Structures are given as structure tokens and as C-alpha cells.
Amino acid sequence: MKRERISPMIWVPNQLVGAPAGTDVTIDCHTEAYPRAISYWVYDNVMLLPTKKYGTETMENSYRAHMKLTVRNLQVGDFGNYRCISKNSLGETEGSIRLYGK
């Protein structure tokens, strides 16, 4: 049976996330795509790679994925707009999450 091709779709459970400075916060996106998509996080137009500052995790289940980004030791410069981006051969889409200080 041939699977239907799906251009990427993204759902963001919480588009507005507040956390106090000095804490760690995790934001997440859910994606669906077939063929499997390449998914990543962007902040200030820069792709985020796993570092001491950022923890990234993607749990995949066939054509669905749950993306998580943990921002550690939040500082004023970390507040703003984070984007989860998902792309495959059929297209590209993104979700947006605003992180603000409490």
C-alpha cells in the first residue's frame, strides 16, 4: 500500500510561554510529514544546535514527530520568538512560540 505524501504540518500546543530568569524552560512543537521531514529550531534567524545553553530532542513515530527545545538558565536575552521549522521534499512550514519573562 502506497502511503499518501504529506507536506509538513506543525501544531504548537503553547504559543506563549512564560518563565522566570534563571530557570530552565522547555517548549515544544508537533509535526507531521511524509516523506519524513527535517526539523529544527531557530531563534534570531539562527539555527539552534545542542549546546550547554540549548537542549534539543525529537521523538519520531513514523511520520509524526514531537520536537522539544530546552533553554537553560534563562536570561533577558533569551526572551523572544522561537520558531520550529519542518521541511521535506513537498514543502516547508513553521510554528512560532513566544518566550517571555515572568
TrEMBL record:
It holds the Pfam family I-set. Residues 8-98 form the Ig-like domain. The keyword Transcription does not apply. It comes from the Eukaryota. InterPro entries: Ig-like_dom (IPR007110), Ig-like_dom_sf (IPR036179), Ig-like_fold (IPR013783), Ig_I-set (IPR013098), Ig_sub (IPR003599), Ig_sub2 (IPR003598), Neural/epithelial_adhesion (IPR051170). SUPFAM superfamilies: Immunoglobulin (SSF48726). One of its GO terms (cellular component) is neuron projection. Keywords: Disulfide bond, Immunoglobulin domain, Repeat, Signal. PANTHER family: CTX-RELATED TYPE I TRANSMEMBRANE PROTEIN, DPR-INTERACTING PROTEIN DELTA, ISOFORM D. This is Ig-like domain-containing protein. It comes from Aromia moschata.
